[in-house]
Amino acid sequence: MLELDDWVQELIPELVNSYSPLAKVLQHNASGQPMQPIESALTDLVNHLRAMPTEELSSQQMSVLDEMDVGHLIGNRGAYWVERVVKTSTYDPATTAKKVGNAVSSLTKSLKEMQSFVNSAKNLGFYLEDQDMLRLQSGRFRVSICFQQEVGINSVPDLKNRSNDWFQIINGVAQALGEKPEDTKVVGVANGSTWVILGATAALTKALAIISKHAREISSNAFGILHDIEDYRNKRRMNKHFEKGFALALDEVKDKGLESLMEELSSVLPESITPEKTGRLKLSVEKLLNFIDKGGDVDFSAPVETSSEDEDFAADAAAIVSEEKRLIEDAQRAKHAARLIEKQVEDKSAPFLPSPASCNRWCCRN
Length: 366
What we know:
366 residues, 12 helices, alpha+beta, four-stranded antiparallel sheet
């Protein structure tokens, strides 16, 4: 929570300052006076939103922002939201001005609410430091697993099955890296959804982050094709020719995604591993891809980076943490991108969806 508060207090005031010029122009245009152009203010805001480092936030932290009703106003989600809202300004400038004005108010309110919560909790004696991170052994990274949706834990059989799946995931990756599954520790649990927090080595965290990143990319590409399939069916354009094309497109997305995944994953593996370990690794990859595809989530957190001025500073360890954080941010960025695509598809006005004329998939080329 303290990390989220620091992020909010540093970045939200700047974001409010970027929203305010657009809100001011829209309010003017809604007043009946001669219209002022909105393009400059809108472009500046969208650029600011897209540059925000939302990859630094975990899924749990993003959930807090969603509960505060500001998650959709931040980062790429915010850029998508404001562009959609402002498109209606030509037809209903008053409603648009009100929505953007409310966004500014919500962001300003979130600053006060977050600071108030942190201060109140401290005054009541609550310890807000990340307990899971404190329990990690030196050099360990936090891997948070969320069991939800189709891979939720709602019964004892679910608990048994999910535990077995994750044993196989950790076991296959660990053995490929020359580690033992027991080297990965369980350091905490959390509720809301069911979260299990692991303490993993740098190598295992790196491998899981690579798999997670590619899983999101595969899922995003497949999601767009599945939307196209549904769209063709709804418009009664589907036939055997298109069915075959879509099936081939889905296979192509998965095959190319897996090929890219294994290529990057090989860069963190020993030069040679036994066929038996290779088989277990592939099973781990398949199970983790399936876990994410069915709604499960995986978050990664690196230890706090040390300063070269610290007495216990170790250059090698600091370099590992820095590299891990880059991979973790790549995985988080892919996750946020996948969720944005899902949102765009749900709204049925997604600008990213190709038309048959511009699409390069098999089904549209043939």
